[in-house]
């Protein structure tokens, strides 16, 4: 909550927003999502997944994960995935990208060794998204604009949870402005 005394900003959340001492599915349930909720997009060699998540300090965000397809099967090796959680600054940038408001995005220096990242860019007829980690192949997926939009909607809804009086329309309009600024820089 903002206070003129001391000019500081502190986040305040109702009890149901707290993730402490609860499992992931408890978090999902408290936020209105079904158990094990995620969106996935499967490509020829890899799959990418997005999930609602919250940081240790209770900032609502998303987690992106990617896995390699097992040889000749419609099964992906999720036990050897690349996984990263978007920061507070990255969430609106990635939302703007997935909502097709900016042509590309790059998030770097994730993980304990700062060796993970996410990249996205538009192609002529699709959206290309990839996760990378040192020592693993770059895991990229060609996504349809519809898949990208749904990933963007999840980013948007998670972002709005951090601002109880912010509507999704207001956030979307802010992301449009952000997209213009990012595209011009």
Give a structural overview.
- There is one protein chain.
- This protein is α+β, with helices and mostly antiparallel strands.
- The protein has four helices and ten strands, in the order ββαββββαββββαα.
- The protein has a four-stranded antiparallel beta sheet with strand order 3-4-5-6.
- Strand 7 (104-110) and strand 8 form a beta hairpin.
- Helix 2 (90-98) runs antiparallel to helix 3 (145-161) and helix 2 (90-98) packs across helix 4 (168-184).
- The chain is globular, with a radius of gyration of 17 Å.
- The model is unreliable at 1-21 (pLDDT under 50).
List keywords for this structure.
globular; 185 residues; 4-stranded antiparallel β-sheet; disordered N terminus; alpha+beta
């Amino acid at each position: 909550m903002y206070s003129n005394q001391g000019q500081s900003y502190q986040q305040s959340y109702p009890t149901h927003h707290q993730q402490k001492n609860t499992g992931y599915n408890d978090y999902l349930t408290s936020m209105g999502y079904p158990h094990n909720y995620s969106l996935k997009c499967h490509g020829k060699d890899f799959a990418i997944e997005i999930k609602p998540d919250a940081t240790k300090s209770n900032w609502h965000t998303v987690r992106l994960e990617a896995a390699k397809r097992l040889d000749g099967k419609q099964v992906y090796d999720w036990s050897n995935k690349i996984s990263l959680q978007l920061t507070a600054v990255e969430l609106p940038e990635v939302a703007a990208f997935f909502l097709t408001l900016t042509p590309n995005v790059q998030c770097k220096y994730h993980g304990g060794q700062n060796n993970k990242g996410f990249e996205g860019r538009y192609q002529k007829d699709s959206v290309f998204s990839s996760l990378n980690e040192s020592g693993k192949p770059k895991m990229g997926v060609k996504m349809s604009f519809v898949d990208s939009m749904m990933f963007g909607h999840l980013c948007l809804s998670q972002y709005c949870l951090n601002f109880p009086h912010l509507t999704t329309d207001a956030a979307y309009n802010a992301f449009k402005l952000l997209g213009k600024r990012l595209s011009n820089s």
